[in-house]
């Protein structure tokens, strides 16, 4: 095993790397959490369920999943989007974007920010919006239905017919609804967020990247407050047409809530979950001045990539090792400062061993003594929102002084030798925690969070 | 006080409707040549819009000698990887130049579009089975190809780059965000080198049809395609889809100097904003765009008076061009009269997720060659706009600082400021 060499180039040596980072002296805190998962709504309900070891996994019910190899997932059964958006808005907002819109409201309210929908003003030009997801187009059901008229007797598509009658065939709002950054638009318009922004597409990395880049934007002064995170409708039939056969999900439908077992000897892949995790990031002094409740400080961001041919991950997780080291550098911490890691836990053969190797590479000896767990067996893998959920879990662990356990980790695989929190939640008051995210295109992100001194 | 590391451009690559590499694209831009023609990649019989700016006679195997292993790439991805390869060679960079962990990739792109026949087949399946929720799943290789960042991952493999991987998906401003976030990553010490830009090919059945139904595409020039894209002209009637890729090599200045790199330009400023207004229109008063322009200029430590050239988003839609011009007038005041403003979309069409990178490429060309590419098809000046859009022929002008505008559906705006490289700043 080789240790990734960071800082071999002279300009990355030692102190010069650090100087620009905190040059403004601005620090960034998490003052609001908006969570919507199969476990519940809001940080409190989710936290209670996570710590209690509850599972939100069940047979997929929103449609008949029989065409799928993987027919289990973490669905949000009682979600009512009309609580978070007008009927008119909902005409152009698909399931994933609805979850994002809801989590935005939950996060802003949790932070106690007096936003437009709560009788306050627009958040305006000093408010940023950084999101990550895995969206592709809008509701496909209607499109498939309307396109039946262009089917010729031999089954082929008559594109000329579509061209001539496109205005009556194409659902009028389908294309608008399908805008990848649709949630950015809807949230910005609903809450009057007009500041710095972007939208990342990917897997678990996407929402984590959004949080990392938003943290940097607040740190450098591009924004004073930012809403950041990820979301996905990963259990939807359209998402599953793409995810089902990639070899990353378990087909052990017979195991029900025990099917998703990261780091376990009997692991066989992950399960999808739908949901959203958005954080309110705020410049620390501003948050303190308004007496905000602060969950944690966001102190480090690091990113990496496996540079292998997807879906194969690097067997030693070199992209993740790079991300972890960079995140610690950014936070100016040493490996043994970490007291908790909310891990990726894909539950694939190579994913889990690669993650463990990456942590040993990046953290050295400390890797054996940092408690590690992942919420994914309880919520399912939120795909575009998976990394952001881990960031929320790490923040809540620091805030509550409790580390939730990895569900279903009955027989830890010796090849994933870490200090797993398993069986039941562990009382602990770590000063620093890390949230990990990996994407199947090779991406890796590590966010470092710190308890306020 | 923030002490940023400086970021320079040391290589460019392009695959566009104007040419399959950077030199031929630049030549097309300065000649005022149109790359728009009849669509050939889809059958447009019956379609209201039949034209686009297509990349012609392109093959990744020809462009990249060692294209073995570049599997899972669809049309946009082949453009991206070809442009990245050219940019790396232009910069004299390979996987030995820096440690892999110090190199990363930031690309604006879009997910692939569903195959029309697949959608029809699913409809047939639903009819046959009587189940309205029947469907079939994608083979793994198709599902991966559909994924947005597969081409970016191929670029990372070229460099064995294990640094940051940023995949931006803000549609028509995506490569602006990608370059901007790469710029920040280099300023903040996350990498020493970033491949940054975009790749896209929305000349698909879905986009030609749906952008058309939204009224965003012109359908008045199907018989005269080279005159179709006419930003800022009074006779403009919508944009023209294009496709392609532009990729830049961005490097931290001291590292670039230490290896004796040729420096093409310096990225000086990045600013973003949200319209928070309407999904598919820009505010007529220019708000949103005003803030991204101001933020980018301020980030560069400059004043509006320091800008010589604006590479406009200039889509050729009635609304964008009016809103953008209004924003420029608001930010630059009387100084707007002095500015040169042009839109490469008049020649290449709208490269959507790759369009901001093409605009940046245009700005870098102007800075290096002292030539500002024109806005072509300027026949009837729009009196409501009334600025110097460099009509029809390129103009000699010493350009020290240029502003690039990029806007998108959803109201996500980007401003980038690029300048001539000067040792002391």
Summary tags:
heterodimer, A: 453 residues, alpha/beta, twelve-stranded mixed sheet, two-stranded antiparallel sheet, 32% helix, B: 425 residues, ten-stranded mixed sheet, two-stranded antiparallel ribbon, 13 helices
Describe the overall structure.
The complex is a heterodimer of chains A (453) and B (425). Chain A is built from 15 helices and 16 strands. With 453 residues, chain A is an alpha/beta fold. In chain A, helix 4 (95-111) runs parallel beside helix 8 and helix 12 (318-331) runs parallel beside helix 13 (349-363). The two termini of chain A are 37 Å apart. In chain B, the strands form three sheets. Chain B has a ten-stranded mixed beta sheet, with helices on both faces. In chain B, strands 2-3 form a two-stranded antiparallel sheet. In chain B, strands 11-12 form a two-stranded antiparallel ribbon. In chain B, helix 3 runs parallel beside helix 6 (150-159) and helix 10 packs across helix 11. The chains are: A alpha/beta (453), B alpha/beta (425).
Termini separation of chain A comes to 37 Å
Give the overall form of chain B: globular
Instruction: Give me the oligomer status.
Output: heterodimer
Q: How helix-rich are the residues of chain B, as a percent range?
A: 25-40%
User: Low-confidence runs of chain A (pLDDT<50, min 5 residues)?
Assistant: 1-22
């Amino acid at each position: 095993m080789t240790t990734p060499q960071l800082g071999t180039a002279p300009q990355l040596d030692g102190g010069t790397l650090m100087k620009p980072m905190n040059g403004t002296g601005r620090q960034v805190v998490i003052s609001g959490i908006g969570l919507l998962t199969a476990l519940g709504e809001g940080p409190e309900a989710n936290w209670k369920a996570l710590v209690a070891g509850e599972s939100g996994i069940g047979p997929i019910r929103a449609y008949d999943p029989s065409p799928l190899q993987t027919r289990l997932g973490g669905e949000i059964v009682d979600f009512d989007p009309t609580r978070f958006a007008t009927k008119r808005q909902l005409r152009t907002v698909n399931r994933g974007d609805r979850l994002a819109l809801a989590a935005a409201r939950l996060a802003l309210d949790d932070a106690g920010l007096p936003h437009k929908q709560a009788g306050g003003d627009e958040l305006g030009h000093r408010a940023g919006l950084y999101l990550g997801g895995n969206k592709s187009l809008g509701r496909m059901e209607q499109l498939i239905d309307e396109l039946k008229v262009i089917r010729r007797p031999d089954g082929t598509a008559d594109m000329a017919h579509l061209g001539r009658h496109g205005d009556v065939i194409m659902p009028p709002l389908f294309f608008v609804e399908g805008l990848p950054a649709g949630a950015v638009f809807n949230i910005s318009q609903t809450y009057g967020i007009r500041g710095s922004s972007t939208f990342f597409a990917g897997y678990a990395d996407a929402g984590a990247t959004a949080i990392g880049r938003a943290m940097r934007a607040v740190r450098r002064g591009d924004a004073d407050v930012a809403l950041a995170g990820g979301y996905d409708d990963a259990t939807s039939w359209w998402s599953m047409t793409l995810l089902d056969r990639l070899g990353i999900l378990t087909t052990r439908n017979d195991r029900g809530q025990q099917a998703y077992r990261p780091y376990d000897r009997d692991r066989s892949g992950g399960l999808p979950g739908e949901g959203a995790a958005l954080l309110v990031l705020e410049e620390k002094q501003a948050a303190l001045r308004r007496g905000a409740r602060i969950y944690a400080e966001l102190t480090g961001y690091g990113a990496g990539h496996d540079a292998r041919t997807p879906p194969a991950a690097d067997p030693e997780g070199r992209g993740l090792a790079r991300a972890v080291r960079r995140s610690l550098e950014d936070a100016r911490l040493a490996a043994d400062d970490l007291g908790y890691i909310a891990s990726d836990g894909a539950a694939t053969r190579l994913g889990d061993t690669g993650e463990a190797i990456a942590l040993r590479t990046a953290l050295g000896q400390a890797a054996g003594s940092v408690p590690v767990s992942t919420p994914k067996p309880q919520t399912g893998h939120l795909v575009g929102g998976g990394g952001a959920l881990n960031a929320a879990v790490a923040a809540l662990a620091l805030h509550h002084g409790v580390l939730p356990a990895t569900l279903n980790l009955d027989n830890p695989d010796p090849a994933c030798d870490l200090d797993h929190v398993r069986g039941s939640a562990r009382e602990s008051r770590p000063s620093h925690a890390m949230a990990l995210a990996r994407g199947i295109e090779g991406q890796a992100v590590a966010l470092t969070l710190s308890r306020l001194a | 006080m923030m002490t940023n590391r400086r970021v320079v451009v040391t290589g460019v690559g392009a695959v566009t409707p104007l040419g399959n590499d950077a030199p031929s694209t630049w030549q097309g831009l300065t000649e005022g040549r149109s790359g728009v023609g009849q669509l050939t990649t889809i059958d447009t019989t019956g379609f209201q819009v039949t034209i686009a700016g297509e990349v012609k006679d392109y093959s990744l195997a020809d462009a990249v000698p060692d294209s073995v292993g570049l599997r899972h790439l669809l049309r946009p991805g082949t453009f991206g990887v070809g442009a990245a390869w050219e940019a790396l060679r232009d910069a004299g960079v390979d996987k030995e130049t820096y440690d892999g962990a110090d190199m990363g990739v930031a690309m604006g792109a879009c997910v692939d579009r569903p195959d029309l026949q697949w959608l029809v087949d699913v409809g047939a399946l639903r009819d046959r089975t009587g189940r309205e929720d029947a469907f079939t799943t994608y083979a793994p290789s198709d599902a991966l190809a559909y994924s947005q960042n597969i081409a970016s991952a191929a670029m990372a493999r070229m460099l064995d780059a294990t640094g940051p991987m940023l995949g931006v998906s803000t549609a028509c401003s995506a490569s602006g965000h990608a370059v901007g976030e790469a710029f920040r990553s280099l300023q903040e010490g996350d990498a020493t080198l970033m491949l940054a830009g975009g790749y896209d090919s929305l000349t698909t059945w879905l986009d030609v049809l749906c952008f058309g139904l939204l009224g965003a595409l012109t359908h008045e020039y199907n018989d005269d395609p080279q005159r179709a894209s006419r930003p800022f002209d009074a006779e403009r009637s919508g944009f023209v889809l294009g496709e392609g890729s532009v990729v830049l090599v961005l490097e931290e200045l001291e590292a670039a100097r230490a290896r004796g790199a040729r420096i093409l330009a310096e990225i000086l400023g990045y600013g973003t904003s949200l319209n928070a207004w309407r999904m598919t229109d820009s505010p007529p008063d220019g708000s949103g765009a005003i803030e991204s322009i101001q933020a980018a200029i301020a980030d560069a430590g400059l004043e509006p008076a320091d800008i010589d050239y604006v590479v406009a988003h200039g889509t050729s839609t009635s609304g964008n061009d009016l809103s953008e011009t209004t924003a420029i007038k608001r930010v630059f005041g009387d100084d707007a009269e002095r500015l040169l403003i042009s839109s490469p979309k008049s020649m290449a069409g709208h490269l959507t997720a790759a369009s901001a990178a093409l605009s940046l490429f245009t700005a870098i060309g102007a800075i290096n060659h002292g030539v500002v590419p024109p806005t072509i098809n300027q026949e009837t000046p729009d009196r409501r706009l009334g600025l110097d859009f460099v009509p029809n022929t390129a103009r000699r002008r010493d350009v020290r600082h240029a502003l690039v505008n990029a806007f998108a559906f959803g109201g996500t705006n980007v401003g980038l400021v690029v300048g001539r490289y000067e040792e002391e700043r």
